[in-house]
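Model it.
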Amino acid sequence: MKSWQDPNPHQLTRRAFLRGLGVSMALPWLESVPVWGDEPVRGRSSTAPVRMAVLFAGNGFHGKEWWAMGERRGLELGKVLQPLEPFKEKMIFLEGLYNAEAGKGGIHSAQTGNLLTGAALEGGGGIRSGVSVDQLLAQKIGRETKVPSLVLGCEPSISALHKGYSMIYSSHISWSSPTTATPLEIYPALAFDRLFRDDVGKGDASVLDLVSEEAKSLSQRVSYTDRGKLDEYLASVREVEQRIQQAGKQGRLQGWRPTLDKPNLPRPADGVPQDVDQHMRLMCDILVLAFQTDTTRLCTLKLNNDHSSQRFPHLGVDYMIHHLLSHTDNADWLKVNQFFTQQLAYIAGKLDKIQEGERTALDNSMILFLSSMLHGSTHDCSQLPVILLGRGGGQIQTGRTLNYLGKSNRKMCSLYLAMMDKTGVRLNEFGDSRERLAEI
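Modeled.
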């Protein structure tokens, strides 16, 4: 792909980038520049693409506080979903969807491994699921962007068996092939580098320093409004860079404390933040930057494993790991649930502030928030907790609740077929479904 600079001084290129030594940064939506790969029509700017993200939180949610009723401004939300109150007119609460194959094996691993595939899983320590919806889309439309898909996580993968099924299943929701879980990036610095560096790991210079000259030149050629957008975008990139550099330097530790209170080796430059709140927020920012710059249109963010060992001392809940806490259904479990939905609300809020023509980046996105079971206390996967945020480029009617319990078509893969339609990929079947959800 070419830089934004063009031999023709009177016209900017169709796919706009800022480039520096070993770096390329896709630009956000600008009214002066047709950055999305098509030409303006009758003087109007090009249309932003539809993106899809999947956020996963393990072990289900609070038994009494995961609910919604009503519609649009009158939509009422249970306490788990209260952080989403500002976005309730841009969301759909779905009940009754499930994966039939998930109920045929053990809990946790067997309920997570086919969450985005709908496929039957191999037990006995074997590994076989199916190609997940995000990776199928990456195969179809991923070549249109610098990064076909981002697969992010906030907890390392587990290699063990649980109830006869590999815990690789409970550690991954994205599958590149039936036998290959897509590599999970849990390091914010490396995820950031993948977005902006052409030669990852080479040099320590700031991405913005490397493209500063092109950024200055571009700023002189765009409209006054776009100049402000460009400055805001570059500032947000700088902020994430600085926070990545500071990650893990505060010295806070979660849960169990080792025998050394300080490391006896120099801290590696690249690493996982010790604090779960900081880790999740960095990954959320990286997701937003990826969508804002059209570096990718597909992202999965696994906030934790389904059999999670995360602890939450920043919430005053540090006596029990996430998995065991999910069995209690108490006030602390509700507090942790709300912390997870706050991550979704944070992403939605940032995307909704990014104006892309007549719509916002949130309007141009589909963000799926789900778990592999309804309640951790019962391990019930006969219906799944599902939230859909965003309007898919204006194609989705939001501010609704949809209940599929008792209906013949209540497969998760039917939802995926409907969502793929919004990206321009129309299939006759996916996973275990041959029909889409007509209401989406």
